[in-house]
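Troubleshooting log. The previous structure file for this entry was overwritten by mistake, so regenerating from the original sequence record. Sequence copied from the archived sheet and checked twice against the printout by T.R.
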Amino acid sequence: MASDAERVRDLLVPHLMGRLDDPSATLEVTGLEIVERGRAFEIVVELLADGQRWRVRLPRDNADRVLFDGAPPYHVVRGIAGMARVQLFEWWHTKGHERRSAKLGERLRPAD
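Regenerated output below.
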């Protein structure tokens, strides 16, 4: 039987995995994990960006715990995934000059 975190991951995968584009960057999400932290949780993604591999932790607050409530409505899942996508792009564009953003991501090994 899948854990709550695995079920939430499965809900988000169709909305977050793969290539994400905005006008000035392309991010490719290659891995996704849900990590529970008490009443909050994190969406942890591994991605390729600009020839580099990164692991980025996207903290979610208690309001997004609705994902853990069995079968949340599709529009709620899509909305939370959309917020996570925006947060990923904000991280990418600000990681070099905002300490808070820089702390969310860690560079892994160079991309092949």
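The CA atoms of residues 22 and 53 lie 18 Å apart. Archived copy saved in two places this time.
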